[in-house]
């Protein structure tokens, strides 16, 4: 069978990585940039403030809705056409928010916009893993994590500033127009990876799509205890941070009486800590295996969550809670990309389907977990939020123990 070698020049490679980075940033900005305006959205649409965390969780759950289909379709049709369809859908749904007139339509659009996140997880991540070797792929995943974290780091602050001159509708329109420009960049620069050979000989295989076979492959993944444990752990590890993103507008603006600008400033320590963790990961990749990196990351992650639990029990104020979240976030930044890579290659099945399953499980854990924390009052009391966030994050420990126990720890560090 004829095999085509992946050929991509430096300019196209840079353009591809840049377009992919901006698309991922936009999928997060569509949430974080709008968070300071969510109380304005509910007021203008004559809806209750409880829709603030629910709209955020619908966005997360939107990322799960199509992943089961997106991943296998990209295995058959290729990553490029499927990602282009996802970018177009995201751009159209953001633009449509400009004319919405009801909270029901707004929430539906949030669900559709969240599907853009599903395309990022199920299509663009495998494409990166297939274009680059292991070391470069992990570094790029961490770099994408840093860029994506500019959204929750700068999004609330930038959104607060833009709201001085623009309405929330105009913010969505701007996101839609930028997403349209990103579509052009992806069309021009994204290579196809399915069915072609990487320079080191690795070839992502093309799998014909069949609903029955797809169902069987997903069931087989669910029966893989190591894969399932890693995917659930990814969601639980990130749940405290996701819950904070969804509930902090209520906790800081509505409960604590802070201004939107102050709300944005309080995000900086937490998301700067995640970026610091990703930078530490890049330095440690040279001398540590991925399982060893995750074990080291558990120290700050667990200490931060235990500090949150102490804040809840002692009734500490906002500053100690943010400090605990920041310490936890360092550990999350070190471990997240490494655990994703190990989970992706813990099975030999096609990476589009495997990545889709990772995304569905982890995002569902984050979305459902965030909804439960909101439903029991996590957005009304800072101490209750801290306790729920700490307990939910610590649930990842037994899953990680089982996964890492079977991981290869004797392999050389990746370079």
Written account of the structure:
- Helix content is 78%, strand content 1%.
- By secondary structure, it is an all-alpha fold.
- α1 (10-32) crosses α7 (134-162), α1 (10-32) packs antiparallel against α8 (168-189) and α7 runs antiparallel to α11 (260-284).
- Residues 1-5 and 409-415 have low confidence and may be disordered.
- The longest helix has 31 residues, at 225-255.
- The protein has one domain: MFS general substrate transporter like domains (Growth Hormone, Chain: A).
- Strands 1-2 form a two-stranded parallel ribbon.
- The chain starts with a strand and ends in a 10-residue tail after the last helix.
Fold blueprint:
Elements: E1 4-5, H1 10-32, H2 38-44, H3 51-65, H4 67-77, H5 79-96, H6 103-131, H7 134-162, H8 168-189, E2 196-197, H9 211-222, H10 225-255, H11 260-284, H12 290-314, H13 318-344, H14 351-375, H15 382-394, H16 396-405
Parallel strand pairs: 1-2
Helix pairs in contact: 1-6, 1-7, 1-8, 3-6, 3-10, 3-14, 4-5, 4-6, 4-14, 5-6, 5-8, 6-7, 6-14, 7-11, 7-13, 10-13, 10-14, 10-15, 10-16, 11-13, 12-13, 12-15
């Amino acid at each position: 069978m004829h095999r085509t070698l992946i050929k991509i020049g430096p300019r196209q490679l840079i353009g591809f990585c840049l377009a992919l980075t901006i698309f991922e940033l936009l999928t997060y900005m569509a949430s974080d940039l709008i968070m300071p305006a969510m109380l304005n959205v509910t007021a203008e649409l004559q809806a209750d403030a409880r829709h603030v965390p629910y709209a955020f969780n619908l966005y997360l759950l939107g990322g799960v809705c199509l992943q089961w289909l997106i991943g296998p379709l990209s295995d058959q049709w290729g990553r490029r056409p499927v990602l282009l369809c996802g970018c177009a859908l995201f751009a159209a749904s953001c633009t449509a928010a400009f004319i919405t007139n009801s909270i029901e339509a707004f929430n539906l659009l949030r669900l559709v916009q969240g599907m853009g996140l599903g395309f990022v997880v199920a299509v663009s991540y495998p494409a990166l893993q297939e274009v680059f070797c292991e070391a470069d792929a992990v570094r790029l995943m961490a770099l994408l994590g840093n860029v994506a974290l500019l959204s929750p780091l700068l999004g609330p602050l930038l959104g607060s500033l833009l709201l001085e001159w623009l309405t929330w509708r105009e913010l969505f329109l701007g996101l839609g127009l930028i997403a349209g420009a990103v579509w052009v960049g992806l069309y021009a620069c994204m290579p196809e990876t399915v069915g072609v050979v990487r320079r080191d000989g690795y070839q992502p295989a093309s799998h014909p799509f069949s609903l029955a076979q797809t169902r069987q492959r997903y069931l087989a993944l669910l029966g893989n205890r190591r894969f399932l444990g890693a995917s659930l752990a990814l969601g639980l590890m990130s749940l405290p941070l996701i819950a904070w993103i969804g509930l902090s507008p209520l906790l800081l603006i509505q409960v604590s009486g802070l201004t939107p600008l102050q709300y944005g400033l309080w995000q900086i320590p937490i998301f700067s800590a995640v970026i610091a963790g990703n930078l530490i990961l890049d330095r440690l990749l040279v001398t540590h295996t991925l399982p060893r990196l995750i074990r080291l990351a558990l120290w700050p992650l667990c200490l931060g969550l235990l500090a949150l639990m102490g804040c809840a029990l002692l009734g500490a104020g906002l500053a100690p809670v943010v400090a605990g979240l920041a310490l936890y976030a360092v550990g999350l930044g070190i471990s997240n990309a490494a655990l994703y890579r190990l989970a992706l290659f813990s099975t030999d099945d096609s990476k589009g389907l495997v990545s889709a399953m990772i995304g569905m499980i982890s995002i569902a854990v984050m979305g459902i977990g965030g909804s439960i924390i909101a439903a029991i009052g996590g957005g009304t009391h800072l101490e209750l939020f801290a306790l729920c966030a700490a307990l939910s994050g610590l649930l990842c420990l037994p899953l990680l123990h089982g996964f890492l126990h079977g991981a290869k720890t004797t392999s050389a560090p990746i370079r």
